[in-house]
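Tutorial, part two.
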Amino acid sequence: MVVAQKSNPITSATTAVLLAAGSGSRFSGNAHKLLTVISGQTVFAWTLQNCLAAQFQELIVVTGAVDLSAQIAEAKFAATNVIEVHNENWRSGMASSLQCALSEAQRHGASSVVVGLADQPAIKPSSWQRIANASAPLAVATYNGVRGNPVRIHAELWPLLPTSGDEGARSLFKSHKDLLEEVACDGS
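Running the prediction step on this input gives:
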């Protein structure tokens, strides 16, 4: 894996999070969707590479259904700021993975997290950076006016996130519209 270095590192106490714990049950390929190879690398490796290129001070990868330790170890060789957290309760839905990430981010003193899904390799490093640098406590990437990932969540909002089920920050978008910033990003 080659990690491109950018000249614009994120200097705040914002931690990146990749949620990679799900079973990929809606994917119809022969392998788990994160392990599917595209242009010589797995989907997970492409996503991880783009997130690392955004130069967060820390990146938390939440794993669960599939073993990603070899790829995470390779990333740690290139960038020592990668932290793997295994979600034993990954079957219970995305909320439990997000809670695992938030616990780890809090332990490391993060003031906010930028959360993305590990099966979205087309999200560019610039999108990760734009969301990280948003001024609002809650920010969501938009692509041609449609909300997507990643999303930024300030620590003051973490207690309001669901603790169970398969919904992440979407509930906050509805209940705290006044705190939400939509950030136009390139790509999809």
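The radius of gyration is 15 Å. In part three we will examine how such features are distributed along the chain.
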